[in-house]
Amino acid sequence: YFKRLYLSRSHTKTIGTKANLIVAAAAGACTAIITQ
Questions:
Q1: Can you list the alpha helix ranges (DSSP code H) found in the chain?
Q2: CB neighbours of residue 20 within 10 Å
Q3: How far apart are CA 15 and CA 24, in angstroms?
Q4: Is 24 helix (H, G, I), strand (E, B) or coil?
Q5: What are the angstrom distances between the C-alpha of 3 and each of 9, 10, 11, 28, 32?
């Protein structure tokens, strides 16, 4: 049971980091467009 919980938790963590990267990239693109 604990192993399963740990696996699911680590899985959500990877998804979270990916989402953060996408958000950061989008924000960077938006600022680049605004500054131009």
A1: 2-35
A2: 10
A3: 14
A4: helix
A5: 10, 11, 12, 37, 44
Q: If you average pLDDT over every residue of the chain, what do you get?
A: 76
Half-sphere exposure of 10 toward its Cβ, with a 13 Å CA cutoff? 6
- Only one residue has tokens 């953060």, namely 20
**Which residue carries 């192993």 as its tokens?**
3
pTM, two decimals, is 0.53
Residue 30 C-alpha from the chain's centroid? 17
